[in-house]
């Protein structure tokens, strides 16, 4: 059975956090509540460790923090939109995709998720639709419709 990697419960349409660590904490909590983690603490640490290697802000007002660790039970993507923007290292970001993948699936699955998001976000229309979205189902629809392009 294929795991759905993004669900309405993994989306925050107007995250109020004002710094990247708080955003990581809040999105980690969404993943924990959704049953995607074996250990919220372990996953959070993997994301922070990856962030310390190199910033996950990609330009385009976007950040993609991620972690591959046994602390992840089921693959997931959390999405958050910051209407006011948050400083992520030296860039202001409005759109955050946080990815979690179990260590045993880190190769192909992990790279596919990252590549898929990277392909989408270079499209200004995709980013604009996400910024203008008003509900979680709309976000899922935008992401799903871009799968077919």
How would you portray this structure in words?
- With 149 residues, the chain is α/β, with parallel strands linked by helices.
- The chain has a single domain, classed as 3-Layer(aba) Sandwich (Mannitol-specific EII, Chain A), CATH 3.40.930.10.
- It contains five helices and six strands, in the order E-H-H-E-E-E-E-E-H-H-H.
- The protein has helices spanning 20-33, 40-53, 108-121, 124-132, 136-147; strands at 11-12, 57-59, 62-63, 66-68, 76-88, 91-101.
- Strands 1, 2, 3, 4, 5 and 6 form a six-stranded mixed β-sheet that branches.
- Strand 5 and strand 6 (91-101) form a beta hairpin.
- The radius of gyration is 14 Å and the shape is globular.
- The mean pLDDT is 89.
Summarize the structure.
The protein is an alpha/beta fold. The chain is built from 5 helices and 6 strands.
CATH architecture: 3-Layer(aba) Sandwich
Instruction: Tell me roughly what share of residues is in helical segments.
Output: 40-55%
What structural class do helix, strand and pairing data support? alpha/beta
Order of helices and strands: EHHEEEEEHHH
Tell me the fraction of residues in β-strands, as a range: 15-25%
What number of structural domains do the residues give? 1
- CATH domain fold name: Mannitol-specific EII, Chain A
Mean pLDDT: 89
Count, helices? 5
For the report, how would you describe the main beta sheet? 6 strands, mixed
- CATH superfamily label: Mannitol-specific EII, Chain A
């Amino acid at each position: 059975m294929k795991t759905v990697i993004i669900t309405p419960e993994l989306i925050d349409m107007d995250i109020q956090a004002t710094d990247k660590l708080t955003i990581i904490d809040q999105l980690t909590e969404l993943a924990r509540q959704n049953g995607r983690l074996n250990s919220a603490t372990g996953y959070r640490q993997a994301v922070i460790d990856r962030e310390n290697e190199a910033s996950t802000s990609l330009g385009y007002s976007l950040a993609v923090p991620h972690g591959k660790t046994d602390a992840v039970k089921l693959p997931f993507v959390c999405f958050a939109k910051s209407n006011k923007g948050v400083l992520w290292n030296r860039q202001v970001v409005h759109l955050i995709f946080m990815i979690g993948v179990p260590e045993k699936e880190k190769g192909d699955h992990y790279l596919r998720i990252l590549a898929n998001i990277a392909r989408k976000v270079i499209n200004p229309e995709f980013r604009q639709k996400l910024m203008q979205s008003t509900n979680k189902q709309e976000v899922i629809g935008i992401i799903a419709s871009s799968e077919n392009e």
